[in-house]
Amino acid sequence: MSTADEEADLSEDEQAGLELIRQIGSIHQSDFWKELDVDSRKGSRILESLEEKGLIEREKTVYEGHNTYHIEPVHDPRDLDFSLLMAGDMLSPFIGDEEIDATSDQFSQYIMTLAYEEY
Description:
alpha+beta, Arc Repressor Mutant, subunit A, 3-stranded antiparallel beta sheet
């Protein structure tokens, strides 16, 4: 099942929780409950469901002296903007090379193309 399909099957509480996590970018589970205005049990169920559906990732951590989870959204690769790797019709010289010579003509042309696209 795709991410879009999983999102279509979310309950109202799950949708609100996912939206909160996506807006903030990351949050500790204890803060998630407070922000969503639900008790810890309901908050845990929401997060477990979102994690099972592959929409968030949870990592155990200690926050303010308590064991909790750090929550982050899982980004759908279809949401990535690959145009940011392009300057005109030039692909970023950072793609595929381990080291970039900042004085190379290729790098200079790429930077100049980026600069002129902005104006």
